[in-house]
Amino acid sequence: MSEGDFTEVEEGLSAGQFDIGLFAIQNITNFETITLKKDKLFVILPEDHPLAGEPFFPIESLKTEPFIYLDEGNDNDSQIIFKANHISPNIKYSSKEDNTVLSMVENGLGIAILPELVVSRTCFRVIPKRTAHPYYRMLGIAVKDRKRTSIAVREFISYTQKQYTAPFGHPT
Questions:
Q1: pTM for the whole thing?
Q2: What angle do CA 109, 115, 118 make, to 5 degrees?
Q3: Cβ(91)–Cβ(134) below 8 Å
Q4: Phi, psi (deg, nearest 5) at residue 153
Q5: What is the helix (H) or strand (E) element at residue 114, kind and residue range?
Q6: What percent of the chain has pLDDT above 90?
Q7: In this predicted model, what pLDDT tens digit does every residue of 44-85 receive, in sequence order?
Q8: Exposure of 150 by Cβ count < 10 A (0-12 exposed, 13-18 middle, 19+ buried)?
Q9: I want to staple 12 with a disulfide (CB 3.0 to 4.6 A). Which of 18, 110, 125, 146 is the partner?
């Protein structure tokens, strides 16, 4: 088992170093993918932000608000929102670590976009704010060629799919 950013996992799959990759799959085109979960994206604000009390974060504000970019290699969840709305964010800082981004937001250095799985159990004093139109990243499994994987890999994929579709399973 190995951990890496999107680019590292993608390169490991291509080189045959990894049998599968588990990550956001919405931009995967050169591998077979199996979708497991939709993960909602939130704009993350410090508690004292002027827009903290609003029901939704206005997308246009991403153009001017100081933005903290989570650098995930060739794929970035925030790009889903930026591309859909033709926005160039006001990037002031970037980090490769979720917790660093959350700490920077908590300390008022800017805002960020992070997925629900990252912010749902955070201990940082931040406010995950929805946008009027919901945006999601798609989490799943990527393989080079599903038909040519080992029995163990096929069983792992089958087991993982069952965990995400079970009626009483936690992740749905």
A1: 0.82
A2: 80
A3: no
A4: -65, -45
A5: strand 112-115
A6: 60
A7: 999 999 999 999 999 999 999 999 999 876 567 888 899 999
A8: exposed
A9: 18
